[in-house]
Amino acid sequence: MFTAIKTFSQVCTHMSIAFGLAYLLTGSLALGGLAAIIEPIINVALLPGHEKAWHAIRRRYAASRLGFAAVAGEKLSQTALHMGVAFGVMYWATGSMAFGGLLAVVEPICNVIVLPFHDRLWEKARFRLASRGAARLASL
After folding, report:
1. Which of 4, 28, 42, 53 is the most exposed place for a label (fewest CB within 10 A)?
2. Residue 111 and residue 102: Cα distance in Å, rounded?
């Protein structure tokens, strides 16, 4: 249950970043909301196929020296996919390549900066819950 709540919170954080940036770029609540909803939906739709393809590549090269390169390639490819979706959604919504390009660059950077803090807060919460559970067991 904890993992599901953390994942939901992570999705909300990601959507908030997309909304905030799109709103800052356009000044439009509608376009901000559109970016916050459509961009994650497209990513969620595309990522399973992306992961399946890269799983096959990793499995093929796991025993060779190329195993590490396959993992690095997957991460680079995933980043490019995410940036492409962010660009496409903002370009579609505004017709501006500049806004699309800016969102494609800035949004992943913001996610890379913000999400580790998010994860640290959730790990502290997990530790506190585990400590409370251990204290209850010790008192029995």
Report:
1. 4
2. 14
Q: What is the DSSP letter of 140?
A: -
Residue 55 · residue 114 · CB < 8 Å: no
pLDDT tens, position by position, 8-34: 888 888 889 889 998 998 899 988 888
Under 8 Å between Cβ of 78 and 53: no
For residue 94 the two structure tokens come to 């505004």
d(CA 58, CA 73): 10
Question: Rounded to whole angstroms, how far apart are CA atoms 69 and 51?
Answer: 15
SS3 9: helix
Q: How far is it, in rounded angstroms, from Cα 72 to Cα 123?
A: 26
Q: Which of 17, 53, 47 is nearest to 32 (CA)?
A: 17
Q: What is the pTM of this model?
A: 0.71
| C-alpha distance from residue 27 to each of 3, 48, 53, 110, 118 (Å) | 35, 33, 38, 19, 26
